[in-house]
Structures are given as C-alpha cells and as structure tokens.
Automatic annotation (TrEMBL), chain A:
Family annotation (SMART domains): AAA
Record's protein name: ABC transporter
Organism ancestry: Bacteria, Bacillati, Bacillota, Bacilli, Bacillales
A GO term for molecular function: ATP binding
Keyword field contains ATP-binding: yes
Organism, as annotated: Compostibacillus humi
Length: 242, 322
C-alpha cells in the first residue's frame, strides 16, 4: 500500500490573521481510492482542497502528489463562473489547449455531461446545474490519475446527481483516484471508500464508513455528525444553563 | 506544466490571446468605447482640422496692421522686434498651424479619456477572472502567469486599437480622399498619440487588476491612478522641481515628464504639431530633440520601460497573491 500513495499531506494548516481555519491535517490518499471530505459549512473542506490544488498557500505543513504525467490532477472548483459570453465549446477549448487533449475527447465529454445540444449556446443563458456540468466536463478534460471535486453536486438536479455518481464509479473502475468534498451524507455513503470528517477546521474522523460507525456506535453519518456537534456544543449549553 | 517547445508555447499564447479578444469583442464595453472614439474622431475632423485652416488667417499682428512706421535711428529695428518679428511671425504661424485651441482641447480629451477607458477595461478583465474563479482554476493547470498577463495585454491592445482604427480610419480615409496633405500629418500625430496611450495604459491597467481583489477596489485604484497621472502629477513636479538646483531644473523637468506617459505624450504631440514654442524659452531643447528624433526615441524607451515594468510586476504579484 505504501508504494500506492498518490497524495501525502503532512501537518497542513491554514490561518487567516489570527483565525485558524484548518488545524494541522495529516492524510494519505492511495491510488484508486475515493476519499470524501465531509463536514458542515465552514468545516474546512474547501480550504483543504484549495491548499492541495495550489490555489492557496498553506500557513504550515506540506503535501506531495506522486503521479505520472505533466498535469497533476483534474479539478472541479466550487461555484465556478465561466465567462457568460462564451459557449461551453469555447470554454473547454480554452482549457484544452493547455493539456494537448484531442477535440474528440472534448466532444465526448460534452456528450457525457449532456451539453452536446447546447454546445453553441452561451453559458450566460445556462442554469446553475448546466454551468456545473460545464465545470465537470472541464475537470474531466485532463486524462490524469487524480480528480478533485469541490462540492460537485451543488445545483445538480436528481438525475444529474445520479449521473455524477456513475461518472465517479467509472473513474474508480479505471483506477483513478478521486478526492471530493460534500455535505450530502447519502452521496458520501454511496461513493466513498474512505471518509474524512472535518469539524470547525479540525479533522475529527478518517476511515471507512464501517470504522467510523463502529467508533461512534451508530449506523449512519447523520448521527455521527450530530454526536460530533453535540460534543462540541455541550460545554456552551452547560454554560448557558449555569 | 511547462511547455518546452517554442512553437507550442506560441500556439498556446496565440490561443489565449484569441480567447481574450473574443471576450472583449463580445463585451458591450468595447462597443461603447468604439462609439466614443468615433465621436472623438468626428470632432477632430470637423472641429479640430477646420480650425487649423481658419485660425492663422484671421490673425493680424501689432503695429504693422496700423501702418505705423517708427524711426529707430541707427539701432537695428529688429532689436525692437519690428522687422524680425514679422519674419518670425510668418514662420511661426506656418509652423504652429497644426496646433490650435481646438486641437489642444481634443488632445486633452484623448489624454484624459483613453487612459481611464484602458484602466477600467484592463483591470476589470483580471478582476472578473478573480471573482469568477477563472484565475484560481488557471493556477491549477500549472501554466505560467506570464502567458496569462501577456495574453490579456495583447488582447486589450489589439481590441482597443481595432476600435480606434475603425473610428479614426473612417475619417482618415476622408482626409486622404480629400487630399489634405498637411491635415493628414496632424491626423496621423493624433492617431499615434492614441495608439501610444492605449498601449501604455493597457499595461498599467493589468497592474491595477493584479493588486485588486474586487470590482469596486479595482475601480477605485483605476480612478486614483488616473487622477494622479492626469491632475495631481504636475503639481507634484512643480513642487519637487523647486528644490532642484537651477542648473538641473531643465533636465529634472524633462525626466519627470518622461516618467508620466500622459505628460511625455503631450509634449511629444505638441512637438510633432510644430508648436513647441508654447513651452517657453526652453523649447529650443525640445525642438532640437524633436528635429533629431531623440524625443521620439526617449518617448519610446520610457514607454517600453513602463510596459515591461508593469507587466513584470503584475506577473509577480499574481504568482504570489493569486
């Protein structure tokens, strides 16, 4: 398993001014794994993703990708706004030139995300879900070993949430490594090989669902969350009562 | 990801430039600016160039017009500015024909409007990418920021120059068709002034975009930079020059002028319109520089230095701050 390490994170943390938004994280991701980062709003999921994608610089710690090829990973950011005056074809063409990817692959991806018929329409006229699918196609453009998705199901309708999960399963079948963040527990349970739970910037759990359930003596993630939350709020409640 | 093949590098840069031009051409800003440039070119043609024709003819100078003859005795009448003034005036009138009140006004209009247009358009182009997440996404592709800044710069210059070309081109064709040779030269100077302004302020706009994080911040920085260069700078120069020793005043002043593209381009255009006499006794030096082509050389060197500096600093800032 040691040789299969794709990503090693050591004591990675982030502080804005005096506020620590991510306490030191240690994490190893193996080849072919689907690791889901989950947690509530402000838990530190997106911060961790921004750090490992190089969008932001860590305050301390380090990380290393061990992959072949010139491009390290495909990335789907959260709440990406593509230029309104461009068509999906033009958006993908812009990113395609950096990767030396064939036009056929781009066309195939547009079909895969259901935007082939809308390829010449401006992105400005798209719904949130359609824009998210352009974003998904952009992330999949690179034929790489690792894919990182930040809140990928945001804005997608139920049909496309199911399709997205199928895409993740296809990637896993091809031996690709997937790291994604989500706060939708059902999605997490369905696609994850390993779950990392972040709570208020601190990594609280790291393991398979079964391992986490066993530690918390329950059988669903919602309950794990409630327990983690109540553990953190109990002192405050006591103070209020007192 | 670093591309090593020079042809591939150029291909990628070319693709990025085309992408940026597409974005600029589809934005309504550029269309509005084209209309504005068209109005300026029309004003220059119908108001500026016509005034060049009429102004000197109406001027009648001093004693000569009164038909008075003054006996100066043995002293050379030119000492009193009588004979020689007549000759000089004729020469001066002929030379200064390119610079009238109307042209000065239109030149100021260009010197004020084009910088602010470039600053807003250029900084906005980067800030939109920052706010929409495009710049962060670009970072994940491990592409050099030099490509990003250069593509923005080239696209801005090309689209604004195309917009200028369309606007001034219409009236340039009229000038050339009507065979007004001298007017064509003035028109050309005016066009070059605008071209230089577009190039240098497009580069400065990218620097403003690189240090701004929001649209409002970018707009504020653009307006601060614009008002500093257009209005505040000259007062600072006058204050600083007071502390410079007399022997160094002229050199100091010229150096300060070259450091501000608005001032250097103003001086350059006035010289090109043969109106350097308005600078006062020191004009001789500017006139000499103009005649030998040194003024144009100095201007080009100072503009290139500013562009290189602005683009390099923008690249470094974006690499560090994102």
């Amino acid at each position: 398993m040691i040789n299969d390490k794709v990503l090693s994170i050591t004591n990675l943390s982030k502080t804005y001014g005096k506020k620590q938004v991510l306490a030191p994280v240690n994490l190893t991701v193996h080849r072919g794994e689907c690791v889901v980062l989950c947690g509530g709003n402000g838990a530190g999921k997106s911060t961790l993703i921004k750090l490992i994608t190089g969008i932001e610089k860590p305050t301390a710690g380090a990380f290393q990708f061990r992959v072949q090829g010139r491009k390290t990973f495909g990335f789907m950011p959260d709440d990406m706004k593509f230029p309104k005056d461009l068509t999906p074809l033009e958006v993908l063409n812009y990113y395609r030139q950096f990767l030396n990817v064939s036009e056929e692959r781009m066309h195939h991806l547009l079909q895969r995300v259901g935007l082939w018929d809308f390829r010449r329409q401006k992105v400005g006229s798209f719904s949130k879900g359609m824009s998210q699918r352009v974003n998904l196609a952009q992330a999949l453009l690179a034929d790489v070993d690792v894919y990182i998705f930040d809140e990928p199901t945001n804005g997608l309708d139920p049909y496309w949430v199911i399709e997205f999960k199928r895409i993740i399963h296809d990637l896993k079948r091809e031996g690709k490594t997937v790291i994604l963040s989500s706060h939708i527990m059902r999605d997490v349970a369905e696609i994850s090989d390993r779950v990392v739970i972040l709570f208020e910037g601190v990594m609280k759990e790291n393991g398979t669902l079964q391992e986490i359930y066993a530690r918390h003596r329950c059988d669903n993630l919602e309950e794990v969350f409630l327990r983690l939350q109540s553990n953190s709020t109990e002192p405050e409640l006591e103070a209020e009562v007192g | 990801m670093r591309e090593t093949n020079p042809m591939n590098k150029l291909k990628i840069l070319g693709g990025m430039v085309v992408h940026e031009i597409k974005l600029l051409l589809r934005s309504k800003w550029l269309l509005n600016f084209t209309l504005l440039f068209l109005a300026m070119a029309a004003l220059f043609y119908f108001y500026g160039l016509q005034s060049v024709e009429t102004d000197p003819k109406e001027v009648v100078y001093g004693l000569e017009s009164m038909g008075t003859e003054i006996d100066t005795g043995t002293v050379d009448p030119s000492y009193f500015g009588l004979d020689v003034i007549e000759v000089e005036e004729n020469k001066e009138t002929a030379e200064s024909a390119g610079y009238s009140r109307a042209i000065a006004m239109l030149m100021n209009l260009s010197l004020w409007l084009i910088p602010v247009i470039c600053l807003i358009l250029g900084s906005n182009s980067i800030i939109t990418d920052k706010e929409g997440g495009g710049l962060s996404l670009y970072r994940t592709y491990h592409m050099p920021f030099t490509y990003y800044v250069l593509s923005k710069f080239i696209a801005l210059c090309v689209s604004l120059l195309a917009s200028l070309g369309v606007s001034y081109g219409v009236f340039g064709i009229i000038v050339s068709l009507t065979g007004q040779g001298a007017q064509g030269t003035y028109f050309q100077t005016f066009l070059w002034l605008n071209v230089f302004l577009v190039i240098v302020f497009s580069a400065l706009s990218l620097f403003i975009g690189s240090i701004s994080t929001t649209r409002m911040q970018g707009l504020s920085f653009a307006l601060i930079a614009w008002s500093f260069l257009v209005f505040v700078y000259e007062f600072i120069v006058f204050s600083v020059v007071d502390f410079v020793s007399y022997g160094q005043k002229l050199t100091g002043m010229l150096l300060f002028i070259l450091m501000n593209p608005i001032e250097s381009l103003r001086v350059w255009s006035i010289e090109k319109l043969n109106a350097e006499y308005i600078f006062g006794p020191e004009y001789l030096l500017i006139h000499e520089w103009g005649q030998s082509g040194m003024l144009t050389n100095y201007l080009i060197v100072s503009i290139i230095a500013m562009i290189v500096m602005a683009l390099s600093v923008s690249t470094v800032v974006m690499k560090k701050r994102g």
